[in-house]
UniProtKB/TrEMBL annotation:
Listed InterPro entries: Aminotrans_IV, Aminotrans_IV_CS, Aminotransferase-like, BCAT-like_C, BCAT-like_N, Class-IV_PLP-Dep_Aminotrnsfr
Reported function: Acts on leucine, isoleucine and valine.
Protein name: Probable branched-chain-amino-acid aminotransferase
Any GO MF annotation of the entry: L-valine-2-oxoglutarate transaminase activity
The UniProt record lists the keyword Amino-acid biosynthesis: yes
UniProt superkingdom: Bacteria
EC number: 2.6.1.42
């Protein structure tokens, strides 16, 4: 596989980052995941906008222009022959040459890494036909989940705990309400209303969420941005998640309780179809 590192395209075994890199010793970096369908990038602009917000929040200099990121992503997709899959991008505060809590001088070059993963069946995903089983777990992450940092240990622990309970993933609960999934935004449907938590520091501002809510609005569905409890979710008509790599994915069970019919719901299926069709058309 060919990967990108600070301006170079290298075989993965030759791409090396310092042991002093702030990303490695401090999880001091941010990332983005952009899906690829038909060899093209899905919602590149949305992910670029959030990358800038994350970098700004951490005062990490953005080392590349939008065009430079676009060129690098396209080059990786082409060199690695990706038809369906994703591009992972990580920008860290770079290598200060020593370990220190203080940020290094502002002229320290950030480290930019990007690579691809091939995922055939991303659009025609069999999981969309069966739906996901979710368990709820306490949200024990830090308080700035709106910044997409590479500090992913709690989400990893929660996914492992969910799998150990025979579920596919977890929804995280804080003060009695669902914040989001370990790596996705969470939704329920009551009657004709799609309900999803409002934006704040408590959740990642999903780029897929933004697009799906826009499409729901265009399709004259009603949307309520508010917190909901696990109990409300268990008695909802449907439940689903969104993320850049899962698109829209139905949830059919929460803590062992079937949601609605216990089968993927029609609204989640419709939103998945609209999202994939529209985003495929706009891919670059
Ligand atoms: N919340 C969390 C915690 C996530 O990790 C992700 C995906 N990285 C999302 C939500 C979904 O965001 P997006 O739609 O931009 O992939």
């Amino acid at each position: 596989r060919t990967v990108y590192l600070n301006g170079d395209y290298l075989p993965e075994a030759e791409a090396r980052v310092s042991v002093f890199d702030r990303g490695f010793v401090m999880a001091d970096g941010v990332y983005e995941v952009v899906s690829v369908l038909d060899g093209k990038l899905i919602d590149f602009e949305g992910h670029q906008a959030r990358l800038k917000r994350s970098l700004d929040a951490l005062e990490i200099r953005n080392p590349l222009s939008d065009d430079e990121y676009l060129t690098a992503f396209r080059e990786l997709v082409q060199r690695n022959g990706i038809d369906e899959g994703l591009v992972y991008l990580q920008v860290t505060r770079g290598n200060p040459g020593d370990r220190d809590f203080a940020y290094p001088p502002a002229d320290t070059p950030p480290t930019v890494v990007a690579f691809t993963q091939s995922k055939p069946g991303l659009a025609d995903n069999p999981a969309a036909r069966t739906g996901l089983k979710i368990v709820t777990l306490p949200d024990e992450r830090w308080g700035r989940r709106d910044i997409k940092t590479v500090q992913l240990l709690y989400p990893s622990m929660a996914k492992m705990a969910a799998k150990a309970q025979g579920a596919d993933d977890a929804w995280l609960v804080q003060d009695g309400t669902v914040t989001e999934g370990t790596s996705n935004n969470a939704y329920i449907l009551r009657g004709n209303t799609i309900i999803t938590r409002e934006l704040s520091h408590d959740i990642l501002h999903g780029i897929t969420r933004q697009a799906v809510l826009r499409f729901a609005d265009e399709a004259q569905m009603s949307v309520e941005e508010r917190a909901f409890t696990p109990d409300e979710a268990k008695s909802a008509d449907e439940a689903f998640i969104t993320s850049a790599s899962a698109f829209v994915m139905p949830v059919v069970e929460i803590d062992g309780t079937p949601v609605g019919s216990g089968k993927p719901g029609p609204v989640a299926a419709r939103l998945r179809e609209i999202y994939i069709d529209e985003m495929r058309r706009r891919a670059i």
